[in-house]
Amino acid sequence: MNSRFNRRSILRGILGGGAVGMGIPMLDLFLDGNGAALANGAPLPTRVGTFFWGLGLTPGQWEPTKVGANYDIKRNLEFLKGGLDKKTSIFTGFTVKLDGRPSHAHWTGLAAILAGTAPARINTFDGMPSFDTAVANTIGNGTRFKTLDATPYNATTTSYSSTGGDNYKMAADSPVALYSRIFGEGFSDPNSGEWKPDPRVMVKQSVLSTVKDQRDALWAEAGATDRARLDQYFTSVRELEQRLQNELLPPPKCESCVVPTQPEEIARKGDVPTIVRKNKDMVKLMTMALACNQTNVFNYVFTTATSEIYRPGDLPVYHGHTHEEPVDGKLGYQPISAELAQVSVNAYGDLLKAMDEVKEGDGTLLDHSLVLGFSDTGWAKIHSIDNIPMLLAGGANGRHRTGQHVKVAAEPVTRVSLTMQQLAGVPVGNFGVGSMMTSKSITEVMA
After folding, report:
1. Of 287, 334, 364, 339, whose CA–CA distance to 83 is shortest?
2. Under a CB-based contact definition with an 8 Å cutoff, are residues 293 and 251 in contact?
3. Which pLDDT score, from 0 to 100, does residue 152 have?
4. Which pTM value belongs to this model?
């Protein structure tokens, strides 16, 4: 049936003598017969993200007993109850192959997952990029931000997204900072019905384009080492150029987009109540960034690998507790460390819940997304790189066979990283270095 309305329609009227407009939600009549694409055949976008928390989880408190579908939910993952378990796959038994290299505490595990390598040094991925950059190169170019990086942890350097070496992204580190980055200068409400290009953006783009010849000349004169540095620099310039180009185009209508009000400034402290509050605000902002088509790719770091969140009035920080706190003989685990691990993984749950509350097309924003939740260690007390927690949430527009528990015996974590990239649409057949190299996808979660 042909309709005079479409997903870009604005209901207009008069209120108190003034004109008003109201966007229309994503209705079935705007979609194809299956509700999985727009009526014109354009697919709903897939959004992809990573969510990191430091210091792992409590051994025995998160791993399901049952393998496959309809797995049981242990204490650490109780936030999955109520339906999120049907949208989340859990991976246990995966490890890092060292190839004779040392295991760097709180670094080797995350480097292996993100870059596929057991690094020779701490704070670097041995020149390898983190896999989110391949995802961004595949699905991130059509939005205002190729990627968005955020952390509630009071440090703009807290991002593990890297194009190689020790070159890491800068993260928005507070609700106000993230709001300003997304909804501040350069943002155009996709549902406002009014848009015109910002002349300042036009000038910026013009300035960048004028230096192309000089950039090419400099490249021709540079040696191999300088070219590596220039490549990283020019990559950031190209991303800026793409962002400016996108800002010169009218944003597509997005009925699931609800522009939030600016959050209140929150004290820059590391106590649990403050960090939890900041996280709740920031995951909602990140969710709206996705819903408003500002980005398709994001990286979120709840805490650093050596987490320094602390309970109010408590002297040791979380990292200190993991090493100093004795294992309770009756419980079989470290109670304070377990409490702080619960806080950390619940933050991932807050993101999933926020995304699943946004209705979009035939489902929710989470159904059209893919979010890897992971940590740096299996058991922080002994810096274990075995059984590192990894969870994959979201339907990826039907490509992820959700709700699976996949259990292996000491297979490389790169199998999960490879599978995530493939589910995200990256044309990649293998991932990793040395013994971490794998072409073995986890077919149990691939629809």
Report:
1. 364
2. yes
3. 95
4. 0.81
